[in-house]
């Protein structure tokens, strides 16, 4: 840790990030995460709107249950969060930033 800095949670987190990115493999993880996250964001941007329209049509026809959809989406996000928290910091950060970049790209 950084013994000369005050023991504030934000400062401790910044010290951990600095120590993690001082290692050379962290930059490889970051680059890989950025590319993978960007591709995932572009894929989601192309696939989610048509699926949402199909789901809305099924809901209007009475063949879809919103409660089931909520449970499936919640399970997916919990699994993704668990996976990202277990990954190296550079990879997690890269995937998150890359995904946000991918879905905001036009």
Quick recap:
The protein is mostly helical and 106 residues long. It is 82% helix and 0% strand.
Helix and strand layout, with pairings?
Elements: H1 9-21, H2 24-60, H3 66-86, H4 89-104
Helix pairs in contact: 2-4
Description:
- This protein is mainly alpha-helical and 106 residues long.
- The chain has helices spanning 9-21, 24-60, 66-86, 89-104.
- The termini are far apart.
- Helix 2 crosses helix 4.
What attributes does this structure have?
106 residues, mainly alpha, 82% helix, 0% strand
How much of the sequence lies in strands comes to: under 5%
The low-pLDDT segments are none
Mean pLDDT: 89
Structural class: mainly alpha
